[in-house]
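hey
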């Protein structure tokens, strides 16, 4: 028994296993200490997330490196076996490999980053995590109107970047174009209506236009794109029912709903203050009850005169 114990204690393989376990434990302990100290000093949530991800990645890298060094003398004999098994593994895990390749593309391709508002594979929301295999999104839309969260967390395989388009609402240009259409009834003072909407639009939207101007100039330098109009634009069009005044403007991608609320509230109040000179148009459909139809048939099946 003593000889077996002594042989087991001095076995090189056992020593390598103990060293590998010790390296992993040390890495985890150091990572835990760093997480508690560094994450506590970072006040920004995005910064804390990046610190945690960086520490986790370094811990994993150190553990793999330590195991590779410890068992380096035994890895040479496994080369042939790894080569034979590689083809089968690649076929069985092709979706996983594609997701890892997608993660590499996301890290270096600039598709999106944490905090961006995106649409991935038909799912719209804010990116809250980018893992090696999946991207996690806080969903918005669906049964909730406007750009508001539904409460569902969606995980999407990173392989989708090679299969479907990626819509980023806040990448190089963190603004979107939006518009409101104001129907004005015929007979109103169109000049006054236009002046009201134009004034309110400039008061509410000029700040967004100033911030968006510098971002758009960088876009023009980076991409082959025209120098589009950033300032609010008001156009008029008449149809069969009313006159449409369309206000098109640039707005922060996270303030679309709040901006529309502010615009409509002021426009409606200003129209009411005109004392009838400007009115909102509407279409009313009134269904009238169908009168009763009395049909009498004669003996021969012919209707009565």
């Amino acid at each position: 028994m003593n000889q077996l114990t002594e042989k087991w204690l001095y076995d090189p393989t056992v020593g390598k296993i103990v060293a590998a376990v010790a390296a992993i434990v040390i890495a985890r302990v150091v990572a835990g200490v760093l997480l508690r100290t560094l994450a506590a000093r970072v006040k920004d949530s995005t910064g804390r997330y990046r610190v945690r991800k960086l520490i986790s990645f370094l811990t994993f890298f150190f553990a793999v490196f330590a195991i590779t060094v410890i068992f380096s003398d035994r890895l040479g004999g496994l080369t042939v076996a790894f080569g034979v098994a590689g083809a089968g593994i690649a076929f069985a895990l092709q979706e996983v490999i594609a997701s890892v390749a997608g993660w590499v593309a996301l890290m270096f391709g600039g598709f999106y980053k944490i905090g961006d508002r995106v649409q991935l594979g038909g799912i719209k929301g804010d990116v809250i995590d980018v893992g090696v295999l999946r991207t996690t999104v806080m969903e918005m839309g669906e049964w909730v109107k406007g750009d508001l969260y539904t409460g569902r967390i969606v995980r999407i395989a990173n392989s989708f970047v090679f299969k479907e388009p990626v819509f980023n609402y806040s990448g190089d240009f963190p603004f979107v174009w939006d518009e409101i259409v104001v129907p004005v009834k015929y007979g109103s003072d169109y000049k006054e209506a236009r002046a009201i909407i134009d004034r309110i639009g400039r008061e509410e939207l000029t700040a967004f236009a100033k911030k968006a101007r510098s971002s758009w100039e960088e876009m023009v330098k980076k991409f082959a794109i025209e120098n589009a109009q950033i300032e609010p634009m008001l156009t008029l069009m008449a149809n069969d029912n009313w006159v449409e005044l369309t206000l098109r403007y640039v707005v922060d991608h996270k303030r679309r709903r709040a901006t529309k609320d502010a615009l409509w509230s002021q426009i409606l109040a200003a129209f009411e203050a005109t004392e009838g000179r400007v009115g909102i148009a509407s279409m009313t459909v009134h269904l009238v009850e169908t009168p009763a139809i009395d049909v009498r048939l004669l003996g021969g099946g012919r209707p009565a005169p």
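The beta strands are 117-120, 123-130, 134-140, 149-157, 166-168, 175-184, 233-238, 243-252. The mean pLDDT is 79.
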